[in-house]
Structures are given as structure tokens and as C-alpha cells.
Amino acid sequence: MSNEALYSIKETAEKAGLTEDTIRYYEKIQLLPRADRKANKHRVYRQEDIRTMKLISCLKKTGMSLEDMKPYLHMSMDSNLDEFPEEREMLVSHRMKIEAQIASLQQVVDFIDEKLEKRSMFPDECPITGENQLSVFEKKNMFS
Helix, strand, or coil here: 81? Predict the structure, then answer.
């Protein structure tokens, strides 16, 4: 028998910073593999499972969809991203989207700074380019 530490769903939730319901949901949508079970049918998790859950949380904070995360979660912890060119390109593309969002938000900050500096709300023209510049704020749980 292995001496590997096993954790209950409650312990795992605490260590991973997720709720028990979230862990169950991630299993249901196959973002996480089905948990091993003890004889009493209670779920048990390993440290590797907790690391995967923490990765999911980090990727979620970047605005990545749960579906887009799946290829990364099937890699082993010691995988070299260079050996997965398609996944690497997806990550580069995701980074470029975030850079565009940052640039868009910087326009908003610059506009507000200008209003504060001039002490006037009325612009000669709107310097904010593009459609729906604030849509990044409207996306549910974008950075949470």
C-alpha cells in the first residue's frame, strides 16, 4: 500500500481554495478526472489533484474558459510546453487577447485621467476606440 497522502473533499477544497461543489462540478464536466473512492464511497484526492485544481484556478483568473483549459490539464506536471505546439500557440493567442484588453483598459484610464485633469466631463471627441470597450467588465467571473 502506498504512503501517498489522501485527502477528503473537504480537506482538498480547503487546500485548493475551491468549494466542494466546485470540485464536484469540475468532475461532472470532466475538467477533473473522477475522484478515487474509499470503501465507504467518499471521494479521496492526492496532492497532484490539488495542484491541478490550483492550475484551474490560476487559468480561470486569466479569463480562460473551462473548455479551453482542458488540453493543459491533461499534460503531466513535468511536461515541456514546447513539446505541445498547438497548446503553446493557444496560450500565446490567449496572452495576445489579454494584452489587447489591457490596451483597451489603458485607454479608459487615460480618458478618466484627462477628465480629472481638465475638470470637465465633455470631450471634443471620444478618444476610446473600438466597440464596447468596457465589455471586459461585463464578463462574469472574468478575473475571479
Answer: helix
Residue located via cell numbers 473512492: 37
**Contact yes or no for 94/68 (Cβ under 8 A):** yes
Indicate the pTM of the whole model.
0.76
Tens-digit pLDDT string for the chain (144 aa): 467 899 999 999 999 999 999 999 999 999 999 999 999 999 999 999 999 999 999 999 999 999 999 999 988 878 899 999 999 999 999 999 999 999 999 999 998 998 888 877 776 677 677 654 445 444 444 444
